[in-house]
Amino acid sequence: MARRIAPLSIDAEEYLTYLAIERGRAANSISSYRHDLANYEEFLAERGVALRDVTPKVLEEYLGMLRAAGLSPATRARALVAIRGLHGFGVDERGMPTDPTEDVERPSIPKSVPKALSEEEITLVIGAVVGSDPRAIRDRAILELLYASGLRISELVGLSLSDLDLDDRLLRAFGKGSKERLVPFGRPAAAALAEWLGRSGRPLLVPAQFARRDDAEALFLSLRGRRMTRQGAWTVVRQAAEAVGLEDRVTPHVFRHSFATHLLDHGADVRVVQELLGHASITTTQIYTKVSQEHLHRVYRAAHPRAAARRGQAGRIGATLATEENDEHL
Questions:
Q1: Where does 10-93 sit in CATH, by number?
Q2: Which residue has the higher pLDDT, 211 or 3?
Q3: The model scores a pTM over 0.90
Q4: Ranges of each domain in the chain
Q5: Residue 262 annotated in active site
Q6: What CATH class does 119-279 carry?
């Protein structure tokens, strides 16, 4: 059974309302902040410390408890962002005397390189969905569109019919903070979407009466005729990956990683990729350039006759190539 989240203080509720209404934060972000703040306020309540009386020592004790619990640096950093925001809001809007988070350092988060699939593996996963029933037609369209557009899973299930332009092969996506962007997609995705919208696809899942207006406008429907959920779309990806033995490597976000990596592999400008992914900062996008560079090194080592020492070559050439190999890792 899921742990019930305790009610928040009035200060925390007003802070979350501020984030949602004035800052336009996404519902998923608000939910994560709510969870982090509930844990924090429960910790304070157990120690009899009011929010306005929190000291840096109390805060460090809480962060230490999160670290001892084995939470990742990313999870601890997110919690600190929520807590820092709450205290800053308290000082600015609620008359609290001090902000105990001012001198607290954010946990260092190691930059991990996304594990993209190869183009052949993407083809295998998409090709795993076979059949001409509405479910198969829908699932192929979902997989094709994820790879063609680099959408987040929440953006994909949030698409409405009016967001799609099949003629010009464009869609309108709403990213984090409800930021809108236009994303193109290619012919395979367009063909899969046209089949899904044709008489053998989506129309067969339309119920006699929609439960909600939002369901009637949804691009992708569940078998019950409701707007697909993130969990439902996740299941589509997982089942296709299982069919080709890639279940340990494939998630919807891996499709997004692969989209970005393959664009860069084929010469796309990093700023174009940034715009397509909906990243606010190019720093976030630049992590993919490292993936692309590693791909270039692999191709070079496999294809260039002097990229690696061959059996029977002279020691002089071998030494030269060994130096080249070391240089590649700098």
A1: 1.10.150.130
A2: 211
A3: no
A4: 10-93, 119-279, 290-328
A5: no
A6: mainly alpha
